[in-house]
Design a protein that fits this description.
The complex is a heterodimer of chains A (about 375) and B (about 425). With about 375 residues, chain A is mainly α. Chain A contains 16 helices and two strands. Chain B has two domains: about 250 residues, Orthogonal Bundle (ABC transporter involved in vitamin B12 uptake, BtuC), CATH 1.10.3470; about 80 residues, no CATH class. Helices cover about 70% and strands about 0% of the residues of chain B. The chains are: A mainly alpha (about 375), B mainly alpha (about 425).
Chain lengths: ~375, ~425
């Protein structure tokens, strides 16, 4: 990936990050203009729609909802970003987190522990089962050389039917005569307390913590250095003695572990059970978009997740004012596409500029190759 | 040379037929080769086949297409809209155009702007999913029978045809005899199966099915027998070499992706126009990814894609028509692998022996012990099969060498 390469040749970090910020903001504005044209073409007033989004989104109530909606996105995006940092494309977050949700929701009902330990136990089970599902893709890649893009797509669908089968045959709560399409409810000691009653769950703090740990592990540790090095230049990394297969395994396990937390705001913060219709889906793919928008940086991911959470939180109100609420999702998809294109274009321009500068340097200082 | 090859093929097919027929008579599961099953299987094969061909065209020109699912979604929506407004043929045309729009977005993003091909595909899937939802809210809500997740039903259906004399139906008011149907109902060894299979393939066939099947030989001919096809494949195998010979690699990738998108759109169109008479949200149900799996399973070749699509279509079809015959399927697999096992023993191929022995023992155990296979597990069959194929035959698979690698003309490599 070019933009990562460019950070190696970086001369001025401050200018680089300003450049990044500037191009991201420009891309978002461009995306909004494209969506405006789309709205106009379909006979809706874009200014009214955007006005409505801002007006309803900026109330205190909606801002809390924004944080609530951002929580799973942060987990999912970080799971994807860990893979990206190693040049691995983990499309399987969807399957990993649903599998983890089912297993942890069920395991959580089989233990009795004091409150904080019980919550911790469920979180650990979720992370382990998410990592376990991701390990299939890792092993297939290491031992059989199967591209993780293909295997994780396949594993998503396998996970869906496998989960459905386990749920219907073993884990479904039959106490209600079959009315309850959920696992048995987790007792109060295993529930994550709310930060603001019924508005924001404590999992938001966990998400921020995970983002911080992601920063420490991937950007500030020896392991993280090896991970990023293997992603940037696998051959150089192997020459430097970094075990390639081990890095693939660790990266996907770590990614799967974080993915396991995606559904936790629902499982231990809201519904207190797993259910095919009550556990939210589609967060795996949303996570990819958030990670792209946040450029795999923890701070960027949090901001991007909040932006998407903000847009999501306004969709219900849009519906009332006769603007189809799905426009919010369309805006998100267009934002990501434009941001990725603009990033690619700007990093290419930046690289070319650096290469030109390097060409002017004496040969011994040539950093461009 | 070709004579012995044809003879071998003939022996193989008759042996397979004999085994199928024996299993059918043994287990009394006529559904294994009934014209009902085959007809349903054919209908289910079509969208998978077209999606697989869409993937093939994209990868042959050097671009991964994860966005087939999204292009299919465009196809279902625009196809249903066109069919609802102007009739089924225009509907199919709109389906193709809708898919091509998706292909064009993919091409602009990956070829013009060089962004990661997987990323572009994933975003197109999301964009299509929510984009058509937005359009549904604008167009379908409030119409009779329509809603946010569903289009109003279409008034016309595509005409279907039967092969006169052989498989019944009516020709200009004259009721044609149904010879194959009669043959099938006799349940004779091999002949009954032949009757069932050929009647399934010729009885009340939609013209869209014919188009889909024709796509396979036409694609094979264009890709392997024309100058355009050679250049297109060369830009997937070695774009640098192709460029040095004056091939416009990026322009060919545009063409490849437009064709790919069009085929994916047609696949979607067959779902919303032929297989049903309205658009429904989630109609594609992951078939784009099954198509991708089929492409891998078929080793990036049209005939392989056809085989894979028929296999998955048959598995899905038999599940729909007679779900209890799935146990007979285990016996079928057991006897097939038994034959291969014998062959492996005779020709002393050790690696083959191990694989077939495993398959034989596993399917035999499955036949003896399993009575019903849960619906939820059979759904994942294509994906499991693809992973197994990838894991065991990875050495023999040969994808286009440079598929997935962006190409920038004129830059050093």
């Amino acid at each position: 990936m070019n933009q990562q390469l460019s950070s190696k040749r970086n001369f001025d970090p401050m200018r680089k990050s300003l450049n990044t910020l500037g191009s991201s903001v420009a891309a978002i504005i461009l995306a909004l203009v494209i969506c405006g044209v789309l709205l106009l073409a379909t006979g809706k007033d874009p200014l009214a729609a955007y006005g409505k989004i801002l007006e309803t989104g900026l109330t205190g109530e909606k801002l809390l909802e924004m944080l609530k909606r951002a929580t799973p996105l942060i987990f999912s995006a970080i799971a994807v970003a860990i893979g990206f940092k190693m040049n691995l494309f983990n499309i399987g977050v969807e399957g990993q987190y649903l599998f983890a949700a089912l297993i942890s929701a069920e395991m959580g009902t089989h233990v009795s522990l004091p409150a904080p330990l019980h919550v911790l136990f469920i979180l650990v089970v979720a992370m382990v089962s998410g990592a376990a599902w991701a390990s299939i893709a890792a092993l297939l890649k290491i031992h059989r050389g199967i591209n993780e893009v293909i295997s994780t797509i396949m594993l998503n669908y396998i996970a869906l039917s496998f989960i459905q089968w386990i749920f219907e045959t073993f884990f479904r709560d039959d106490s209600d005569g079959g009315l309850n399409v959920k696992t048995t409810e987790i007792v109060p000691s295993g529930r994550m307390p709310d930060l603001v009653h019924d508005r924001l769950n404590g999992m938001f703090i966990v998400a921020l913590l995970v983002a911080f740990l992601y920063w420490v592990i991937v950007f500030r540790s020896r392991f993280g250095f090896q991970l990023r090095a293997s992603g940037l230049n696998p051959i150089a990394a192997r020459t430097a003695g970094i075990p390639a297969n081990q890095m693939i395994l660790f990266a996907l396990l770590l990614s799967g572990a974080v993915a396991g937390l995606v559904a936790m705001p629902s499982v231990i913060g809201d519904v207190y059970a797993y259910g095919p219709s009550s556990t939210p889906t589609q967060f795996g793919f949303a996570g990819i978009t958030v990670a792209l928008l946040g450029r795999n940086h923890p701070f960027g991911i949090i901001i991007a997740a909040m932006l998407f959470g903000f847009l999501d939180s306004t969709s219900a109100v849009l519906q009332l004012s006769e603007i189809p609420s799905s426009i919010v999702k369309v805006i998100q998809a267009i934002i990501v596409l434009v941001v990725v294109i603009v990033n690619e274009a700007s990093s290419r321009r930046y690289n070319r500029k650096i290469a030109e500068q390097a060409a002017l340097l004496p040969k011994s200082l040539d950093v461009s190759r | 040379m070709t004579q012995t090859k044809n003879f071998k093929l003939f022996v193989l097919i008759s042996a397979a037929l004999a085994i199928v027929s024996t299993v059918r008579l043994w287990t009394n599961q006529d559904a294994l080769t009934s014209s009902d099953t085959i007809g349903t299987a054919l209908r289910l094969t079509v969208p998978i086949l077209l999606a697989g061909m869409a993937g093939l065209w994209a990868e042959r020109c050097g671009v991964l297409n994860i966005g087939i699912e999204g292009m299919m979604i465009f196809g279902t929506w625009f196809g249903a809209w066109g069919a609802w407004q102007f009739g089924p043929w225009v509907g199919l045309l709109f389906a193709i155009l809708g898919g091509m729009f998706g292909g064009l977005v993919h091409a602009v993003a990956t070829v013009r702007f060089n962004i990661d091909q997987v990323i572009s595909g994933v975003v197109i899937n999301l964009f299509a999913y929510f984009g058509v939802r937005y359009l549904s809210e604008l167009v379908y809500v409030g119409k009779p029978g329509g809603g946010i997740s569903q289009s109003p039903p279409q008034k016309w259906a595509l005409p279907k045809f039967n092969l006169p004399i052989l498989s019944g139906g009516e020709v200009a008011g004259w009721k044609s005899p149904d010879f194959l149907g009669w043959l099938e109902s006799q349940r004779w060894f091999v002949l009954g199966d032949l009757g069932g299979i050929s009647r399934g393939l010729t009885h009340s066939i939609s013209w869209a099915t014919v188009i889909a099947v024709i796509v396979v030989p036409v694609s094979a001919w264009v890709l392997w027998r024309t100058r355009f096809g050679l250049r297109l494949r060369s830009s997937g195998e070695s774009p640098v070499a192709a460029e040095s010979l004056g091939v416009k690699v990026n322009r060919l990738r545009y063409y490849g992706l437009l064709i790919s998108g069009g085929l994916a759109g047609l696949a979607g169109g067959t779902l919303s126009i032929v297989a049903s008479s309205y658009y429904r949200q989630g109609q594609t149900a992951g078939r784009g990814f099954i198509g991708l799996a089929t492409m891998i399973f078929g080793n990036w070749r049209p005939s392989g894609v056809l085989t894979g699509a028929m296999l998955f279509g048959y598995a899905e079809g038999i599940k729909l028509v007679a779900s209890d015959s799935i146990t007979a399927l285990f016996l079928l697999i057991a006897s097939m692998s038994g034959v291969f096992l014998l062959y492996a023993i005779i020709s002393r191929k050790r690696s083959q022996l191990l694989v077939t022995l495993c398959a034989f023992v596993l399917s035999a155990i499955a036949y003896r012990t399993i009575d019903t296979v849960p619906e939820s597990l059979t759904q994942s069959l294509p994906y499991v099969v693809t992973l197994i194929v990838l894991a065991t035959a990875n050495q023999r698979l040969r994808p286009p060498a440079m598929a997935g690698v962006p190409f920038r003309p004129g830059e050093p490599h």
